Amino acid sequence: MNLLMIIRVAFRALVRNKMRAALTMLGIIIGVSAVIAMVSIGQGAQQSVQDQIASIGTNLLFVSAGAQNVGGVRTGTGDTGTNTLTVEDLDAIKREVPSVSMVTPGINTRSQLIFGSQNWNTQIQGVSEQYPDIRKWNVQDGSFFTDADVRTAARVIVVGQTIADNLFPGTDAVGQTVRVKELPFRVVGVMARKGQDQQGRDQDDTAFAPYSTVQKKILGSPRVQMAFVSAISQDATYTAQMQIGQLLRQRHKLGPGDADDFSVRNMSDIADAANQTNSIMTILLASIASVSLLVGGIGIMNIMLVSVTERTREIGIRMAIGARSAAVRTQFLIESVVLSLTGGLIGILLGLGVSFLIPSLLGWPTLVSTAAVIGSVIFSAAVGIFFGYYPARKAAALDPIDALRYE
Amino acid sequence: MQSGLEIQSQNVGAAPALLSNVGAAPVVISLDHVHKTYTMGDVEVHALRGISLQIKQGEFVAIMGASGSGKSTTMNIIGCLDRPTKGTYILDSQDLSRLSKDQRADIRNHKLGFVFQGFNLLSRTSALENVELPMLYAGVETSERHRRSLAALAAVGLAGRERNHPNQLSGGQQQRVAIARALVNEPALILADEPTGNLDSRTSVEVMEIFQRLNRERHMTLILVTHEPDIADYADRVVVFKDGRIKSDYQIESPRNAAEELKLLTAVEFDEDDDDSEPVNGQAVEQKES
What we know:
By secondary structure, chain A is an alpha+beta fold. Helices cover 56% and strands 18% of the residues of chain A. Chain A has 13 helices and 12 strands. A 6-stranded mixed beta barrel of chain A has the order 4-5-10-7-9-8. A two-stranded antiparallel sheet of chain A has the order 2-3. Chain B has 10 helices and 10 strands.
């Protein structure tokens, strides 16, 4: 008896019990569709993080002022007490590191912005005129301040959308004058909407002023907490990172044994960290879903065992008229594989359907993974073989005399 | 409805004895000092205590005996479902005493046909597919399988019923499907284990008519296990078992002729509904034979 005929016999046996076959498959269907849906949610999240990072700019580097060792007492990074990074350092980077194209300091402070009867507490960031190019963030209304404004420490300010909405509701922000610490600032531009960053902070709730203005007129301190540096290309980021490090160590006169009093990070590192988090989430989701696949497999084994007992007489008849043990075993094994594979295929369709529906229903991005689909097919076939083997062996081991007598 | 006894009392004309032909025919089955011992815990049960039996090509043998007499064990050994503990069993000049499970399955498939008391058809499977089953395991091609199944079903008078499922057939019709299944692989021997046990007397005569026809026309070797003496009377030879031994083995000079009896029965029931599909053993069967 050839395999094709055994497959036909197995199919006929399943068709004879449609309801039971459908219920048995349900476990696998749910398992496979859950795995596929979960993996596509995970992959979708990963993709959207990657997209976000790409939109920030993959050739972006962050230079932060670091811990300073003052007689054994170490300060934290980016803190008020640190002044390891200076505007001169940044000028040196721009001048001496060939793989760097643009540099801007980032000096953060919080302050109240007052316009007429309205006021709004926000973050003011002191940056250079190159900031929009470095961050790939455009001005929507008006314009960004110029290098002349930076040189003269002009009292000009560019506000984010959130500030514009709250401070100037219904009016044009550009050209208005706001007060920061009793000093009047002229609003020259409004940034385009940027949305939330990875940590969920509203990036539009920020105002930008020339760093020189922030240093001299708001903070009264020459310190620079951090800087954004643009490498000439994505490939050059690692070189730039290394060269900036060398330059700053040299400028800060650090000996070979001294720790860095600054840190240089690139977006790839941050992207890697985010990817890793998402991968863990995906694996977690997929493994929870796999548990239901396992349960589905046990369901198949259960039904196949019941089926073997229920069909003892049928097995006896088949053996009496000349079915070899192997033929009986193969028949039951194929029945179970057909159940799990059919369930797997339906599960894939269902999982794909769910993956396509989730973005519109829940607003989560999904990305269907081919590996997950192929993996599910292989896994469900394996489940069928693994959980079908024991019942099939039991059927094949029956004695035809006893089986025929079974009531 | 007429009882079996009444039929026997009418005992219409003796069937022509074919014993002279059988005498010269080759031996199909040869059991030589066959023992079968079952071990149940510490107790040894001797089911067969040295059976020697020869059956020739074209014989129609009835095996009788009370339950526990060893007739079922003998059937199982002849049917290649079981192996003797001691002694030899030769079927069609092949020693089957020491075959493996798979080899026995192949012998059952190619050389033996089974007819059971409970019909043992696959439910929810058409008559045709039931008959095709042995050929499926023999690896016969689809078209050939189809042709032979249709022929076998026609031979047992079920032409036109090929697509019916067992639950759409009467007991007698189901048993005829089983007979068609038994003979479809052209076996050396058909084993019928209480084939009329679940049938009423009229249907029993019909089934016996088929057996007699297969035996007379196709010279098929038949072994029939029964505990009803009037059913055994259709055979040419009766072997009686008792306590694991053969008690007696004799020829029937003038076996009952099922075909003649059927003719007479039909004449008697002429005015009645010509319907042979009475429900059997509580099985609800609504099918009428056309």
